[in-house]
Amino acid sequence: MHPAGRHGPGNRHAVPGGDTPPCDNGPHGSPVRRDHAGTRRLAGALGRSATRQRNGRSPPDGGGVARGALALLLLLPATAQAQWQRIDPAELPPPYATRSTSNASRVVAPPAGALPQVPAGFTASLWASGLSTPRVIRRAPNGDIFLAESGGGKVLVFPARDGAPAAPPPDTFAADLTLPFGIAFWPPADPRFVYVAETGRVLRYPYRAGDRRARGPAETVLSRLPEGGHWTRDLAVAADGSRLFVAIGSETNVAQHMGPAPRGGLAAWETARGIGAAWGDEAGRAAVLQFAPDGGGFRPFATGLRNCSGLAVQPGTGAVWCVTNERDGLGDDLPPDYATSLRERGFYGWPWFYIGAHPDPRLAGRRPELAERTLVPDVLLPAHGAPLGIAFYDGTSGPAAFPPEFRGDAFVALHGSWNRSHPSGYKVIRLQFRDGRATGAFQDFVTGFTTAAGRVWARPAGVAVARDGALLVSEDANGTLWRIAPKLAE
């Protein structure tokens, strides 16, 4: 890894899709076993693979700019503010209104002089490069930036440097990990542990503010999490520190290998697993689960979430927010992906329903009693855009603080589609909040990651707000981090 300004982008490989294959396919369609050894093979492939899959038995993600009935991304010129958009859950098209399309992205090295496009008054600079599948970014309470380098099996730490347009050299906090993704600090205000989620377990390392290397060996907090399929495991800590949350995505696209009924009967299954929980290969999946800091009390928090790839706790309200990759195969504009606050014991539809009481035709007539219990998410996003990370803007001071109207809004990284004739995603969007509540509106904020020929040179994966107020964006197509700041801060 090199700080920006010393070397150009280093890792010029395509990387896993928003949620990697929920079947047994690894890079290039090669089989991957559902055991720890197989997961390690998949982990190694993440840093090398030239193509990846986002879903079950489907091809790699596509790249480009969204078009279509639900994603009319009508932008003003790149230097102006993008229009606010909203998708109405009451106006979704019927299933198969368009043909399900495989539209694979083609990742290329950044063109000479390429920069992300940002609104007027902001500037984008290359912050770090040469990374191996950089995904989740988290700011420690002291301002240091922690990064999950999923392809390299590491967690890196960048020392806090307020106002610096390029990153200082990082330290390796932890290494030899299997697909590290989620990072959390506990207790929230003055942490004594850093929690790291691998694909099959949650670890914690002893920590004191300013540590850039783990001061002791890892302790396993949760083990034997489901592996294979959607591999990302994000983490969040409740505002009061009483519990943590881990997101576990589904094994498949729409529970196609589930079987007729769970052992012991449906009532007992849902009592233990949560409302609408699928069974078979999907047991313990498609959910956000909660646990005590020591790993006790592990149980469902919210269910029916096909692949909640990113978690965040909203400042002020303490609400747990989730960005979800919805299912594929129903057409260009179905179903919308979404960002939502989570209701404890809430059910969000998968695999039976989507966006409220819309039934999935592939499971028609099954579990009709769940229709009225399926919650509608707070913010619907263009279908198949693959949201991976979410961060609330909490910068109030510092040399790179955004204007006051940004405070309380959220940013979401859209990794990019494969199942759309006109690809969507490949950008960072802003979600609008008023008085702590989402309005349902979103707008493009960081774009320009595709070429005129439809190639892709960056795939946003993670977002975080630095101590100085700048927005940091990870992208895993070419292994870089970008810094977005007001021009006056430069």
UniProtKB/TrEMBL annotation:
Report the SUPFAM superfamilies cross-referenced here: Soluble quinoprotein glucose dehydrogenase
Q: What is this protein called?
A: Sorbosone dehydrogenase family protein
Q: Which InterPro entries match?
A: 6-blade_b-propeller_TolB-like, Beta-prop_PDH, Quinoprot_gluc/sorb_DH_b-prop
Which PANTHER family does this one have? Answer: HEDGEHOG-INTERACTING PROTEIN (PTHR19328), MEMBRANE PROTEIN (PTHR19328:SF53)
Q: Top-down, what is the taxonomic lineage of the species of origin?
A: Bacteria, Pseudomonadati, Pseudomonadota, Alphaproteobacteria, Acetobacterales
Region (Disordered) residue ranges read 1-64
Q: Where is the Pyrroloquinoline quinone-dependent pyranose dehydrogenase beta-propeller domain?
A: 116-330, 374-484
Q: Which domain of life is it from?
A: Bacteria
